[in-house]
Amino acid sequence: MSQELQADRIVRGREAVVLRFKEVIEVLGIDEVKVERVVDTGNEVAGVIQAVGRSPGADVPNAHTWRYAGCIADGKFVYFRAYYDAAEALTAAGVEP
Fold first, then answer.
1. Which phi and psi (to 5°) does residue 16 adopt?
2. What pLDDT, on the 0 to 100 scale, is given for residue 14?
3. Which pTM was predicted?
4. Using one digit for the tens of pLDDT, what is the confidence trace for 58-88?
5. CA dist., res. 19 & res. 82, Å (int)
6. For residues 39 and 93, is the Cβ–Cβ distance under 8 A?
7. Which of 5, 6, 46, 60 maximizes the CB count within 10 A of its CB?
8. In the Cβ-directed half-sphere of 92, how many Cα atoms lie within 13 Å?
9. 3-class SS string, the chain
């Protein structure tokens, strides 16, 4: 797997999304994920998670906060997008930050 993360990369389909998350986990050495916040508006959902791990090779501790907004139908994501800013993710899901 690539040791490079492309922030603007778009993936489609369940297998591609699962592979993408596995790549991120491997590159960042993530070994723990904590859900900080989830907001469900009925049509859209927003979430903030904290990913913690140790970078492979350098063995340096790291923590990253990830923010997502998307749509869930029939218990599955129809789409989702990652954001750097929590307010942007909440706004995208139709929630006041």
1. -65, -40
2. 79
3. 0.73
4. 999 999 898 989 888 888 888 888 888 888 9
5. 16
6. yes
7. 46
8. 19
9. CCCCCCCCCCCCCHHHHHHHHHHHHHHHCEEEEEEEEEEECCCCEEEEEEEEEECCCCCCEEEEEEEEEEEEECCEEEEEEEECCHHHHHHHCCCCC
CA end-to-end distance (rounded Å), the chain: 36
Tokens at 48, concatenated: 């903030």
Could you tell me if 39 and 91 are in contact, meaning their C-beta atoms sit under 8 angstroms apart?
no
Residue with the two structure tokens 């906060």? 65
| Among the listed residues 19, 24, 18, the one whose alpha carbon sits nearest the alpha carbon of residue 3 | 24
Q: What angle do CA 64, 1, 85 make, to 5 degrees?
A: 25
Taking residue 52's Cβ as centre, other Cβ atoms within 10 Å add up to: 15
Residue 69: how many CB atoms within 10 A of its CB?
Answer: 24
What the chain holds in terms of domains, given with CATH numbers, is 14-92 (3.10.450.50)
